[in-house]
Every structure is written in C-alpha cells, then in structure tokens.
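Progress note, sequence design subtask.
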C-alpha cells in the first residue's frame, strides 16, 4: 500500500482571506446616503463619509436652500441664491459640536458633523414645490405647515440616530444634546423671521400679501415660545452633565493610593493567606 502524499500546509485565516479581511468592505456613495435618509445608517457608514460626500452634500444643501425661496415674493436676493444655506450649515454644525464635545462622546469630529448635516438636506426639497399654484392659498398654507412638521421630525430623527450610533452618548446626555440646540435654533429662526411674515397684533397674520409660508412661520413662533421656557432647564441639565463628565474623567485619571493604615496583624494575616491559600 503506497503511503499517502503529504497534505499541503494549511493557510491561516488571514492569509486565505487576503487583504479583504483586514480592510472593511467599501460602501457605495449612494448606498450610504440612502441609509442616512432611511434611518438605517450605522457607525461604519459615518466613518466612510469623505470629501466627496461633503462636496455633493454642500451642493445639494445650496440647491435646496435656493429652491426654498425661488418663488417667494418676500425673499431677499441672497436667500434666492441659496447663500443662507451655505452659512447655516457650518454655523449649525459648530453649535452642535460645541454642545456634544464636553459630554465626552466616544467619537467626534467637526468635519464629520458638517458632512452628515449636508446629507440631511434633501427632505427640505418639498419647500421648493409651488403648491399654491394648484390649490387655494389657505390649503397651501396648511400643507406647508404639515411639510414643516414632517421635515423637522425627519431631520431630528436622523440627528438623534447620529448621536446614538456615532457619538455613543448615554440616554440622558443624548436627550440633552438633541433638544438643547433645537430650542436655540427655533428661537433664533423666530427672531430672524426668514420668511418675512408680517404680524397684525389684533388680527394675527398680516393679510395684505399672504404667502404659503405664513402658517409655517406661525408654527415656528409657537415653538419658540415653548423653547423660551424649556431652553434654560435644558441648559442647566447640560451644565450638570458636563461637570459630571469632568469629575468622572478626573477620578479615572487619579492614581490609586496604597492603604498604609493597616495594622501589622492584618498585614501578617494577608501574607499568610498568600503563602497558605488553603489555611493552616
């Protein structure tokens, strides 16, 4: 009987898998964007965001911002050219980054945050639809108000998931980091009155030149009133969490001091227990 030939040496898992085992799978550009908009993204998707996502996202945010005011009779020239969106995104990202960073997130980064915010711009494209050309002004105002609610909830949900899967904040810190900037943003938007809505103190919204955005701005003003009272409480909660994280970090860095106050008898007992683990 002939002896069997020697078997070839077994390859290790790392060798057989090749370079694909050491590097994460490449994620497509549109696949990542689709996962962000459908709230299915994870930390790997955020980590894969690069300069291409940022460039295309800024372009989309600019187009959406310009489309929001393209047919508005009250919009200023810079608003119609989308300049406001180009300023709004980095400023908003800085506010969010300023709130998140002291809470000691697991991962952070200003550029990543800016890139992610640009990817949340597409839902606002509904503002560019001139619905008032096909329905009555009252219906258009109501539809725009509903659109504001849907887009706002959609964007807040995307940002909340970003805080969960990327920053990895615990629930209390996540809630504060999510709501505190919103109160400030809503209050500032109400003060700026970007829709240029005119209020009549006795009769409500001015009816001299009604627009489809009137009810939308009225909702922003109502939310700003709630933010005026909720914002200070959230700010105090944020300060408490920041101080807590600072103290926890100092405690983790503090060296553990040796206990030199033990008596000689306890030292001898512990020494004997190490020499005779089973006892005498």
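Output:
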């Amino acid at each position: 009987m002939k002896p069997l030939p020697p078997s070839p040496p077994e390859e290790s898992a790392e060798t057989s898998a090749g370079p694909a085992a050491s590097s994460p799978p490449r994620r497509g550009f549109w696949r990542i964007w689709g996962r962000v908009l459908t709230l299915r993204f994870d930390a790997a998707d955020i980590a894969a965001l690069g300069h291409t996502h940022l460039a295309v996202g800024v372009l989309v945010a600019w187009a959406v911002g310009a489309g929001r005011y393209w047919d508005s009779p009250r919009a200023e020239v810079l608003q119609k050219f989308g300049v406001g969106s180009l300023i709004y995104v980095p400023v908003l990202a800085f506010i969010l980054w300023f709130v998140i960073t002291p809470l000691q997130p697991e991962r952070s980064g200003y550029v990543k945050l800016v890139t992610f915010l640009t990817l949340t711009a597409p839902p606002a494209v509904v503002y560019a639809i001139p619905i008032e050309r096909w329905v009555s002004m009252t219906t258009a105002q109501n539809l725009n108000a509903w659109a504001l609610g849907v887009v706002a909830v959609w964007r807040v949900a995307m940002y909340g998931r970003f805080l969960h899967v990327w920053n990895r904040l615990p629930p209390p810190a996540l809630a504060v980091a999510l709501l505190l900037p919103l109160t400030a943003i809503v209050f500032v938007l109400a003060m700026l009155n970007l829709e240029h809505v005119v209020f009549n103190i006795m009769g409500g919204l001015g009816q001299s030149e009604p627009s489809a955005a009137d009810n939308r701005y009225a909702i922003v003003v109502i939310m700003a009133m709630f933010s005026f009272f909720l914002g200070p409480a959230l700010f105090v909660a944020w300060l408490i969490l920041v101080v807590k994280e600072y103290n926890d970090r100092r405690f983790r860095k503090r060296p553990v001091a040796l206990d030199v106050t033990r008596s000689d008898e306890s030292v001898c007992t512990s020494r004997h227990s190490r020499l005779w683990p089973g006892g005498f």
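DSSP finds twelve helices and two strands in the chain. Work on this subtask will continue into the next period as scheduled.
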